[in-house]
Structure formats: structure tokens, C-alpha cells
Design brief:
mainly beta; 5-stranded mixed β-sheet; about 45% strand; elongated; binds zinc ion
């Protein structure tokens, strides 16, 4: 387990939920879904995703849409923001 610390609160963050899907986009739409863990600061409730799986599931995989729906139904899907400057990637 990695150790993650909220700098603002100076406390160790806790895993809030395992198996959270992070959906990344290209200009043409969603292209990769990767499992991760959601961590939370117990003091200020700041949340991050960490502990990503080595391999993501690409949109060419036959289970891609089904898995996205699964995450939506379980409220475990985080979609990458697409309105940020591409230079920040
Ligand atoms: Zn905090």
C-alpha cells in the first residue's frame, strides 16, 4: 500500500473505495478505462484516484461499453475532464 498524505491537513489519506474506473478521452470520445482506488482525506474529504492497474481496457475491447455501464450503475466511474488545456497533460 502506498502512503498518501493530504498536505493541507497533514494527515494520512484512507482508501474510500476500490475498483473505481477512470475513463480517459481522446478528441473522438472515450478510449480507455482503468481500474483504480479512490482515496480520501479523513479531515477535509479531499478525494483522489491512485493505485491504477497496469493495463487499462481500451475501447476496442468488446467488454468496454458493458464495463462502463457497470461502473455507472455502481457509481464508481470518474470521467476525465475534457475541457482542460491539452498542454497540462
Ligand atoms: Zn485534507
Amino acid at each position: 500500500m502506498p502512503k498518501l498524505v493530504c498536505v493541507k491537513c497533514r494527515v494520512i489519506m484512507k482508501v474510500k473505495k476500490n475498483g473505481v474506473g477512470f475513463l480517459e478521452y481522446t478528441e473522438t470520445g472515450p478510449y480507455k478505462l482503468t481500474a483504480s482506488d479512490k482515496w480520501e482525506c479523513p479531515k477535509c474529504s479531499f478525494e483522489i484516484l491512485a493505485g491504477f492497474a497496469e493495463e487499462g481496457l481500451h475501447s476496442t475491447n468488446g467488454n468496454f461499453d458493458r464495463l462502463i455501464i457497470y461502473h455507472i450503475d455502481n457509481n464508481t466511474l470518474v470521467r476525465e475532464a475534457t475541457d482542460v488545456n491539452s498542454n497540462s497533460k
